Amino acid sequence: MRKIKGRMDESILVCVYYGPNGERLIRRGHKLAQIMDCPLYVLTVDALPYDEFDAEKSGYVERWKELCDELDVEEFIIRDNEKRSSVKAIAEVAHNHNITQIIVGQSPQNRWEEITKGSFVNVLLREMTFIDIHLVSVDRTIKSEEDILFEKGVRGFLKKDEDRYRLSFTRSNQNLYEGIFYKEIGTDFNNGVFKFINNTGKTCQIHITEDIATGKMKEPPNVKEK
């Protein structure tokens, strides 16, 4: 049972996008919510439907969900298949949840980018006049420990091969899982990551080494297509 927050007149929304800084923003929001003893929400917005997320994106989402459960976040919100601008989506969520403070990451932006594309933060400020916005500096150089590039994903299958699982690209009654295989760039063998939905409906991914599934079923979100 969730603990009833002391200050329901305040409510914090953390907006995250894909990258290692998302976890940092969530933890920053959690600290602020603890100080204020108020509800915390986490939001991510994407123009693609969730089932079209690549292995990297879905990996980040799964990690954020786990972190939100760990920190007792009020709600983790995914606005997928969003055709409006991210600012419009954020504004709607903020209105629906009576948000009074928003935390976003501020990436370095040079003057030319600001002139040609406009400042995301400025647009956000104009859209939400009565909400406090906290900017957390984001370092573009932060990367995952295993920053590996992968080719575009292709449809594949996992089937039982004695006491192990083998990658296949042929439909068969022996296949146990259907998913997407992301091959590492620069290898002649089928080395990479296989993403699939398990029997409980949860998105999983596992490393593939020369057609054989190896390692733990859940891996860090480090898949980057090129």
From TrEMBL:
- Protein origin, superkingdom: Bacteria
Q: In the UniProt record, does the keyword Kinase occur?
A: yes
Q: Among its keywords, does the record have Transferase?
A: yes
Any GO CC annotation of this UniProt entry:
plasma membrane
Keywords per UniProt: Kinase, Transferase
Per its record, what are the GO molecular function terms? phosphorelay sensor kinase activity
Q: Which InterPro entries match?
A: Histidine_kinase_KdpD (IPR052023), Rossmann-like_a/b/a_fold (IPR014729)
Entry protein name:
Histidine kinase
